[in-house]
User: What shape does this take?
Amino acid sequence: MNFTVEYEQEEDGRWLAEVKELPGVMVYGKDADDAMAHAQALALRVVADRLDNGEAIPALMFSFSLA
Assistant: This one.
């Protein structure tokens, strides 16, 4: 499974990044790179939590797109 990180700049200048395949994984960053890094870190935490709880996880692979 690919993880798609979509990100966009908000009116206030912050960047919002969302991992589409993991509902609720949305983060803000001061710039696009910062938002992407935070989104990747949170996605990995979610996957690790799923592993800890014996839940199925997708194969790890990231792709990025600008909304």
Remarks:
- The longest strand covers residues 3-9.
- The chain has a mean pLDDT of 87.
- The CA atoms of residues 18 and 26 lie 4 Å apart.
- The chain has one domain: 3-66.
